[in-house]
Amino acid sequence: MSLYDKIYEVVYQIPRGKVATYGQVAELANLSRKARLVGYALYKIPLETTDIPWHRVINAQGEISHSIWRKGTDYLQRSRLESEGIQFNTQGKINLSQYLWKPTV
DNA sequence: CCGGTGACCCGAG
DNA sequence: GCTCGGGCCACCG
Q1: A63, A92 in Cβ contact below 8 A?
Q2: Residues A58 and A65: beta-carbon distance below 8 Å
Q3: CB–CB of A50/A76 below 8 Å?
Q4: Which residue is nearest nucleotide C9, judged by alpha carbon to C1' distance?
Q5: Percent of all residues in chain A with a pLDDT value above 70, rounded to a whole number
Q6: Which residue in A8, A62, A63, A90 has a CA-CA distance of 20 to 30 Å to A22?
């Protein structure tokens, strides 16, 4: 049971067609203010890991974040989101007020 | 042990 | 819109 398991658990709960921000995931995982850890946790997820919908996690600007070393996955992430019905505006951003996941309290 | 790195966030100017 | 700086903390060499 590592710190990341908590993060993965939260990400796993993101429903289809919705997205969550790093900060949001951090809070739900009791890691408020530690959004970077969420990014690091996702960074460690192998591409072959399909159990975790990592593509539904985006930054607070409603855009897809990725490191330059993972180029190519940006296409994959956007592709997956679009196939779930999520639309990007002309600036490549997501309308958070519409797609942001509202977790069950 | 230490320093660099990293899918981040927020406030100030 | 932009840049800067601070905060936070695990991982790796």
Answers
A1: yes
A2: yes
A3: no
A4: A37
A5: 100
A6: A90
Could you identify the residue written with the tokens 């539904």? A56
Which residues have Cβ atoms closer than 7 angstroms to strand C? A 2-4, 33-37, 40
Q: Determine the pLDDT at residue A11.
A: 96
What does the pLDDT average to over A65-73?
79
- pTM exceeding 0.70: yes
Q: Which of residues 59-78 of A touch strand B (CB under 7 A)?
A: 59-61, 65-70, 73, 77
pLDDT at A50: 85
Name the closest nucleotide to A69, judged by C1' and CA. B7
State how far the Cα of A12 lies from the Cα of A35, in Å rounded to an integer.
17
